[in-house]
């Protein structure tokens, strides 16, 4: 997800996880996908990817077939049993049987190395256009969130949210019942190249409470923040 204008524009596009143990590949893909206004995170191992996928939502996962600790297909099978996010497999295996295996395991697309960045970016855009790709309407208490218009509505009344406010409330809605520290929230909602602070988080929460009610995001003493229970 991303925002309007400058650095914040990244919040209105996709959140992408790159899972690859080659640091050069990760660096290259992160740079190029960031230029396309995506928020990009990475994991070097399958276990690290699983940890991230457990606590954070991603729109697209770019997953290498051969990881240092486990086959990429193991991560794919695990992820697809728990979520609906799109997975683009990267591999040096070019045979039809290998491609069939990856797609049968649940991959949404398959790209053979070496590939052009232009093609990969096009594949990502194609995945994002699929109608079942994202949940457009989420619930936050009495409000319905619409990711297309960045609004919260109740009884026919629409409240417009800033892209940052929407990104934050969407994060909590996708993780109901979970408590997150300030650092964990900032690292998942704010782009990594911004100077986000705890004060920035508090200010955003304050604005959301003014718009959606005091209890929309609750503070748990000594632990962090969670989605309001009402």
Biggest sheet details: 5 strands, parallel
What structural class do helix, strand and pairing data support? alpha/beta
In CATH, the architecture of the largest domain is 3-Layer(aba) Sandwich
Radius of gyration: 18 Å
Strand order of the largest sheet: 2-1-3-4-5
CATH H level, superfamily name of the largest domain: Response regulator
Please report the total strand number as a whole number.
Answer: 11
Q: Roughly what percent helix? A: 25-40%
Q: What is the terminal-to-terminal distance? A: 26 Å
Low confidence ranges: 1-12, 131-136
Count of domains:
2
Estimate the mean pLDDT confidence.
80
CATH topology term of the largest domain:
Rossmann fold
What does this structure look like?
The protein is elongated. The chain folds into 2 domains: 6-129, 3-Layer(aba) Sandwich (Rossmann fold), CATH 3.40.50.2300; 137-227, Arc Repressor Mutant, subunit A (Orthogonal Bundle), CATH 1.10.10.10. With 230 residues, the protein is α/β, with parallel strands linked by helices. It is built from 8 helices and 11 strands. It has a 5-stranded parallel β-sheet with strand order 2-1-3-4-5, with helices on both faces.
């Amino acid at each position: 997800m991303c925002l309007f204008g400058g650095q914040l524009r990244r919040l209105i596009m996709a959140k992408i996880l790159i899972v690859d143990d080659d640091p050069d590949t990760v660096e290259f893909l992160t740079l190029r996908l960031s230029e396309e206004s995506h928020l990009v995170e990475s994991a070097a191992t399958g276990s690290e990817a699983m940890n991230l996928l457990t606590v954070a939502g991603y729109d697209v996962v770019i997953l290498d077939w051969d990881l240092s600790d486990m086959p990429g297909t193991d991560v794919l099978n695990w992820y697809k049993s728990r979520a609906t996010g799109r997975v683009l497999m990267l591999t040096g295996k070019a045979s039809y049987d290998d491609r069939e295996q990856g797609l049968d395991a649940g991959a949404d697309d398959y790209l053979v190395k070496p590939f052009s960045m232009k093609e990969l970016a096009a594949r990502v855009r194609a995945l994002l256009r699929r109608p079942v790709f994202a949940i457009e309407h989420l619930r936050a208490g009495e409000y319905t969130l619409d990711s297309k218009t960045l609004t919260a509505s109740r009884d026919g009344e629409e409240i417009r949210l800033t892209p940052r406010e929407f990104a934050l409330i969407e994060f909590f809605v996708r993780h109901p019942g979970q408590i997150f520290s300030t650092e964990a929230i900032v690292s998942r909602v704010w782009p990594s190249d911004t100077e986000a602070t705890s004060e920035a988080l508090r200010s955003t929460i304050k604005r959301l409470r003014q718009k959606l009610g005091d209890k929309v995001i609750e503070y748990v003493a000594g632990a962090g923040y969670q989605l309001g229970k009402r």
